[in-house]
TrEMBL record, chain A:
Broad class of the protein's primary localization: cytoplasm
One family name in Pfam for this protein: UPF0020
Descriptive protein name: tRNA (guanine(6)-N(2))-methyltransferase THUMP3
Residue ranges occupied by any THUMP domain in the UniProt entry: 170-286
Assembly mode: Part of the heterodimeric THUMPD3-TRM112 methyltransferase complex; this complex forms an active tRNA methyltransferase, where TRMT112 acts as an activator of the catalytic subunit THUMPD3.
Subcellular location: Cytoplasm
Enzyme class: transferase
Single annotated GO MF: tRNA (guanine(6)-N2)-methyltransferase activity
Annotated GO biological process: tRNA methylation
Organism the protein comes from: Rhinolophus ferrumequinum (Greater horseshoe bat)
Reactions that this protein is recorded to catalyse: guanosine(7) in tRNA + S-adenosyl-L-methionine = N(2)-methylguanosine(7) in tRNA + S-adenosyl-L-homocysteine + H(+)
Region (Disordered): 145-173
Family membership: Belongs to the methyltransferase superfamily.
UniProtKB/TrEMBL annotation, chain B:
Full protein name: Multifunctional methyltransferase subunit TRM112-like protein
Protein's organism: Rhinolophus ferrumequinum
A Gene Ontology molecular function term of the record: methyltransferase activity
Chain segments annotated as coiled-coil in the UniProt record: none
Keyword Methyltransferase carried by entry: yes
Amino acid sequence: MSDVQEATNQLLDVNLHENQRSLQVMESGPGSESENLQVTIGATVPTGFEQTAADEVREKLRSSCKISKDRGKIYFDISVESLAQVHCLRSVDNLFVVVQELKDYQFKETKEEVLKDFEELAGKLPWSDPLKVWKINTSFKKKKTKRKKINENSSKEKIDNGQGDKRDKKDVKRELSDNALESHILDYYENPAIKEEISTLVSDDLASCKDETDESSREETDPEVLKFRVTCNRAGEKHCFSSNEAARDFGGAVQDYFKWKADMTNFDVEVLLNIHDNEIVVGIALTEESLHRRNITHFGPTTLRSTLAYGMLRLCAPQPTDIIVDPMCGTGAIPIEGATEWTNCYHIAGDNNPLAVNRTANNISSLLTKNQIKEGKLSWGLPIDAVQWDVCNLPLRTGSVDIIVTDMPFGKRMGSKKRNWNLYPACLREMSRVCRPGTGRAVLLTQDKKCFTKALSGMGHLWRKVHTVWVNIGGLHAAVYLLKRTPQAFVHSSEQDGERTPWC
Amino acid sequence: MKLLTHNLLSSHVRGVGPRGLPLRLQATEVRINNVEFNPDFVARMIPKVEWEVLLEAADHLRLIEVPKGPIQGYEQDETFLRKMHHVLLEVEVLEGTLQCPESGRMFPISRGIPNMLLSSEETET
């Protein structure tokens, strides 16, 4: 047991304190006829989870990451052959290919001069390689969209026998031979048409994400006359221009340069102009729809982003056969992400609300159906179950759970602050009972940090706070707390002096 | 509900003895799923399994070929591991009940989901 404990400790420490010592960037791929194009990819990730995302990139793509000061963005270099795997990353919301990064950009004094500079900039940028990447990415997406249409139709029929569609041969060669990755590629265009604001890619008043049916119904455009738009995100106090103005003037110059057609809603190329203080990054978007709701088909009032769920799970370093429980699962975003990505663990989703449990069960079914179609086999199993229960009185054996991951009621849209005063301590207590002493850990997301901290303060003998990640959930400043269960065994109230009621 | 899940459950009814009493399982509808066999996963799960609970549940579901306990060298014994894989992960109770053996309180299982909610009188306050 102590070996496991040590290993867990080490893993948790490595997760948290790993600095950005750069590993060797991937050496050139296997010699082949196709040119070996190296590009820089930018990814937007949930704020606060940049390091976790960087870890995933290092693990899956063997690339080191640069974490931008512009919060919620990471950058890494890959060979274009690895593009398919990039889309398989679970911790990123959106992807773009970097055209150029300009550090220490000197803005001129007046708005007119600044905007003129932007116009001139357009013609000076190294567009050709990024555009090649965009092209490869687009043809890749079109294949998946067609396949998605086939899948949508076949999923409506009864799934008795596994009728997988035949696998498309991919143009992009893949370096890793891991077949599990292939199954994630369909996730990319999996989402139903839930309109959603892509907060990091959309500037003030421009349209939000597109319905993917637009993508497939669009006819093949003449490659010479592409349609495009420019999206500008600007952050910083010393700028004398607005993002709209920058987008407009930069866009005008791009149009002149390429002779493309500007189209705000039905575009082929989305050019990104990200300005953060004195740093400018020009990029081309590789994703249209945010990836972060990929696993969920049945939404609830407070459904968590899958990318955030992934980040939280990664934070607790799940080990093979860990029992992972979300005792307030809502729509099941976290356990479902867990069952998809950590298939060698066992996941249990629970909630007291029958609506939530039903949604979770439906989401699990959808996932199973999707897996069935993709895998083309009869396998009807994921290591996940759902139970209806009360988090304050869990029907679980003492010390049987390795990891607890949950999104606690903030007290805003769900529950109330007043209820939290009673709920949080009762919750933490019951969770400490079921959590395995010594090696167990919990990752808890909440916006009600004050209540949480107070609830935790009386439980130092059971929980030790190891790390806090500050995140932004729909504009609210929330925190993800990583707790370790101390080695002390849980003592039941009947064995204590009786003081067990929640404090007020 | 899979039998592995059932193995982790215990009665939480107020006043019932030490925590950890297994729940008696009865099923009216069971489905057998075809789940991909992962020997490593099963082997590592074995130490976490409460055997009496598993055997009683398997008995109530009238499952056959259920190993009575871990055998010597089970980690490498594929036959043993496959049997355990089947019992723990492939048998799914869709409709049935879970019963607290001491208080007799019944909890329904419907569409694969057990409802373990207690009324406010029943919970410890």
